[in-house]
């Protein structure tokens, strides 16, 4: 028994001339819109992954953040390649089928941009590559543990800070086993702490 398929096994139209031009056009337009929607969905997934990457890197910092940024950037690159493939398929359908109907009727679905850099394809590619550079830059920064404002806490997270109108700053340490009461009387601030 042979595993080779023949043309008789493949679906085909017995009478292709029976299919109207309008049916072909509707099918091509549906495929065009499906590819366009698919690329938009992947662009949204790209954005979600990038936001998660940046948030996680600022929360964890150090080597874990660097590894997360590199792995996440690889995932973003894969999503970007899928988006480009969707555009390639979409544009093929546009040129192959839709233009054959639109061009004789002088229908233009989208005008040419004034400048080449104003094309959506160029703009999104610039954003993607800029984000990848930022990701790898932050990964290198965290891996090298450079002393910077990104790594230094700017205040003690276990303390209450109060800035008064006279530009003075009061800091009171938080203790987990005490209830803190703060009272304001004009510019006078009173702290009190009681054990639970």
Helix-strand topology string: HHHEEEE
Give the strand content.
Answer: 5-15%
The overall pLDDT average reads 77
Overall 3D shape: elongated
Q: Tell me about the biggest sheet?
A: 2 strands, antiparallel
- The oligomeric status of these chains comes to single chain
Low-confidence stretches: none
* Approximate helicity band: 40-55%
Number of domains: 2
Explain this structure:
With 196 residues, the chain is of the alpha+beta class. It folds into 2 domains: 16-144; 159-195, no CATH class. The protein contains 3 helices and 4 strands. It has helices spanning 21-60, 62-102, 120-144; strands spanning 159-163, 169-173, 178-185, 188-195. A hairpin with a 5-residue loop joins strand 1 and strand 2 (169-173). Helix 2 runs antiparallel to helix 3 (120-144). It is elongated, with a radius of gyration of 30 Å. The model has no long low-confidence stretch (mean pLDDT 77).
Keywords summarizing the entry:
196 residues; alpha+beta; elongated
Structure, briefly:
This protein has helices at residues 21-60, 62-102, 120-144, and strands at residues 159-163, 169-173, 178-185, 188-195. It is α+β, with helices and mostly antiparallel strands and 196 residues long.
Mind sketching the topology for me?
Elements lengths: L20 H40 L1 H41 L17 H25 L14 E5 L5 E5 L4 E8 L2 E8 L1
Helix pairs in contact: 1-2, 1-3, 2-3
């Amino acid at each position: 028994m042979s595993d080779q398929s023949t043309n008789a096994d493949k679906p085909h139209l017995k009478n292709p001339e029976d299919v109207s031009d309008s049916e072909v056009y509707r099918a091509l337009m549906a495929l065009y819109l499906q590819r366009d929607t698919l690329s938009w969905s992947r662009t949204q997934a790209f954005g979600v992954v990038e936001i998660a990457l940046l948030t996680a890197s600022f929360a964890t910092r150090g080597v874990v953040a660097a590894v997360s940024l590199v792995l996440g950037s690889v995932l973003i690159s894969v999503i970007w390649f899928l988006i480009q493939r969707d555009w390639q398929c979409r544009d093929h359908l546009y040129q192959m089928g839709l233009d054959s109907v639109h061009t004789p009727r002088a229908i233009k679905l989208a005008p040419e941009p004034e400048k080449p850099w104003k094309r959506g394809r160029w703009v999104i590619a610039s954003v993607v590559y800029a984000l990848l550079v930022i990701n790898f830059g932050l990964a290198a920064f965290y891996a090298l543990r450079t002393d910077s404002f990104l790594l230094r806490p700017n205040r003690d997270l276990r303390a209450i800070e109060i800035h008064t109108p006279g530009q003075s700053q009061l800091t009171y340490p938080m203790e987990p086993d005490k209830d803190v009461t703060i009272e304001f009387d004009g510019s006078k601030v009173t702290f009190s702490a009681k054990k639970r």
